[in-house]
Amino acid sequence: MNLAPFIDGAYGVTVVFLLGIAVMTFARYRRAVKRLAQVETR
Amino acid sequence: MSEDVLTTSQTGGAKNWFHRYANPGRFLRLVRPWLPALSVVSIALTVTGLVWGYFFAPADWEQGDAARIMYVHVPAAWVAMAGYAALAVCSFFSIIWRHPLADLAAEEIGPVGAGFTAVCLVSGSLWGKPMWGAYWVWDARLTSVLILFFLYLGHIALIRAFDNPAHGHRAAAILALVGAINLPIIVFSVQWWNTLHQGNTISITGGSKIYITMLYPLLISTLGFYLSFITLVCARVCAAVMERRTRGLLLAAAERE
User: Is the ipTM of this complex over 0.90?
Assistant: First the structure.
């Protein structure tokens, strides 16, 4: 049995999840910092 | 405006450190400077663990290269369970002391924990197909982890299901506490029932059934996943505190006008 698709699939799902949640969290964090700075300097 | 603007009356008079640090403003001041370093270390450890496991760790004598899935599946499973334990602890503090930080933390742990549980389930089924001949079996371990995933989803949904956010947090906290009974069931399922899933390979009290060349990448990957989880949750809680403060400032400005 060719195991490569199963191994690559498991690693692929993990990497996509970790990258996805990291990018979304970073974007939200940056947006929150920027928005707070804008409101505080008003 | 003072950073302690979100301090509640119940934490304000508290003497002990625990209640002092439950203040969202103080949490933000403490954690924010550490986020860049935490991010770098968690990325470094996770990448090292995954690359070591995928390319350099030896194949298993019985399972061959399929055992490489262990380096993503096992850390994801541990983080999924630890995340739920953290969710239950936050829910306990939320119900007993109504710490605003506990509610925020619980709200942010939910989606991250659900993601790690999904990774555990998908990687587990991709491991199951070549080993057992099926992507899924209604085995005690698999079923209890699926229930864990549904508990996370239920928690996420329940928080947002009420017009009054306080009611949502309270209902979700009760669900999280009741659902914590599932954690020992997951851990001991392989001992209590006959399962296709293999028994515990690693023990902190010694007697691990895994060779050291496979144990090191597994531990590094696990440490990376744990740190990634902590970093993600901390960053999301910081963002939530800042969003809350922004809303508060906008509301105060609107009231002045």
Answer: yes
